[in-house]
Specification:
457 residues; alpha/beta; Serine Threonine Protein Phosphatase 5, Tetratricopeptide repeat; Rossmann fold; 2 domains; nine-stranded mixed β-sheet; 22 helices; 9 strands; disordered N terminus
């Protein structure tokens, strides 16, 4: 494509708007937007506003377009200008709520959704805003209010798969697993290709201890999609038989690319504290930060550890297998370099390159840790330190590590000590903490620190 072609297309779109009535011009612009043809949609909406300044529908949909571009402040301002002209436009209030939610302004988003509901109360048009309001309540841990909003949405639109799905989450968040399973089944019946809903049904079965039923659903899923690495891994976790030594690269990439956009919000809702606990261990062992160390954040994800490690670093690099995660980490602007690579492979390319290796909840996707610990030892300079967190296997369990039904591995304290010793680490300290909460229950973990042998040892 030559550089002149986009200009020609923009000119053609602008000319089409110039020669049509307002209703047709808006229909043209909205059609481009709904088809995700962003450039012609933007041109058409700007052309509408050039002919009809402050036209509220054009302002509204230009705001929606800006939201898709990640320009949240502009998006909010545009939709608010539209609503100043037409305050009874319920759809614009709902879209304003979506934009504010994307900007994490939860209070403002809730008010926008409530305004949309007030304008459409007791009609099917209120279902979308009610469903969105339930998401806000759920993010705040207000499970009963989330349930009430979903039930109100279903009262006016009983065939809403979204509302049944969110109702199932609200019910399971209150420990009503059987009722949540039924609601989730309704969601699947109405929206059979919704993989997340299918995941939640299986998760509910596992919470009930019904592994065979869950395994049957995984097998049916694999019959439809036999090469799906996520389902392959989860079936192994469900059965507890022939479990892999670690999660496959395909599993890691698919899971984390899928959840990159919502990863931070989801972890916040789970009271996830592994990065903070890891940073506390670093501070306890290294003292006050001097910005003098070469540090690698292994499995850096969206970069939650980056700001906590940066004060200690002369150079801070991040490594992750998920492109989606790295795209979220880059805007934090705390890493000197970001690498897309599998963790052990990356460490093997960095002999004696680092003073500190840090990893929050990455080794929970490894069962066998021998190769990873040996690679970490090679990548550290003499006297260098390794810090990481994992989920804890109960002392009463005689296995060194176990693949849990959630797809993550838990490790026994004795196994960690032995593996680190074999890799040449000393000064090993393993301390318990609560990693997160799931289904209202604490998830036990270990924060581990160890030191590579110094030169004179």
């Amino acid at each position: 494509m030559t550089s002149a072609e986009p200009r020609v297309r923009r000119s053609a779109v602008a000319q089409a708007v110039a020669g049509t009535p307002l209703a047709d011009a808006l229909q043209l612009a909205i059609g481009h937007l709904r088809a995700e043809r962003i450039e012609p949609a933007e041109t058409a909406l700007q052309a509408v506003l050039a002919r009809w300044p402050e036209q509220p529908d054009a302002l509204h949909f230009l705001g929606v377009l800006r939201h898709t571009q990640g320009r949240h402040d502009e998006a909010v301002a545009l939709v608010q200008r539209a609503l100043a002209k037409l305050p009874s436009q319920a759809g614009a209030w709902n879209n304003l709520g979506n934009i504010l939610l994307g900007a994490r302004r939860l209070d403002d988003a809730a008010q926008a959704y409530e305004q949309s509901v007030a304008l459409t109360r007791n009609t099917p048009d209120s279902a979308g805003a009610l469903n969105n309001l339930s998401v806000i309540h759920r993010k705040r841990g207000r499970w009963a209010e989330a349930e009430a909003a979903c039930r109100a949405a279903l009262q006016v639109r009983p065939d809403s798969g979204d509302s049944w799905f969110n109702l199932s989450l609200a019910l399971m968040g209150q420990g009503q697993v059987h009722e949540g399973l039924i609601a989730n089944s309704r969601a699947i019946a109405l929206w059979p290709r919704l993989l997340q809903a299918r995941n939640e049904v299986i998760r509910a079965l596992l919470m009930l201890g019904e592994r065979e039923r869950a395994a049957t659903l995984y097998r049916e899923w694999l019959a439809e999609d036999p090469d799906n690495p996520v389902v392959q891994h989860q079936l192994a976790a469900c059965l507890g038989e022939h479990t892999p030594a670690r999660a496959s690269n395909g599993y890691i990439e698919q899971v984390f690319d899928t959840f990159a956009d919502s990863f931070d919000v989801k972890l916040e809702a789970l009271h996830y504290v592994a990065p903070q606990r890891l940073a506390q261990a670093v501070q306890q062992r290294l003292g006050e930060p001097q910005a003098a160390l070469d540090i690698a954040d292994l499995g850096c994800g969206t970069g939650l550890c980056g700001p906590l490690l940066r004060p200690y670093a002369r150079q801070l690099v991040g490594c992750d297998l998920s492109v989606g995660m790295l795209r979220k980490a880059k805007p934090r602007q705390v890493y000197d370099t970001l690498h897309r690579a599998e963790l052990v492979y990356y460490l093997d390319t960095q002999p004696a390159a680092f003073d500190v290796l840090a990893s929050a909840d990455t080794f929970i996707y490894f069962g066998v840790l021998d190769d990873a610990m040996a690679a970490a030892a090679r990548a550290l300079r003499p006297g260098g330190r390794l810090f990481f967190t994992v989920e804890a296997l109960d002392d009463s369990d005689d296995a060194p590590h176990r693949l849990q039904t959630n797809g993550r591995y838990a490790h026994h304290r004795c196994y960690l000590q032995a593996t680190l010793a074999t890799a040449g680490f000393g000064a090993v300290e393993i301390e318990p903490f609560t990693v997160r909460h799931e289904a209202g229950k604490p998830v036990p973990g270990w924060v581990v620190s160890a030191q590579q042998a110094p030169c004179d040892s």
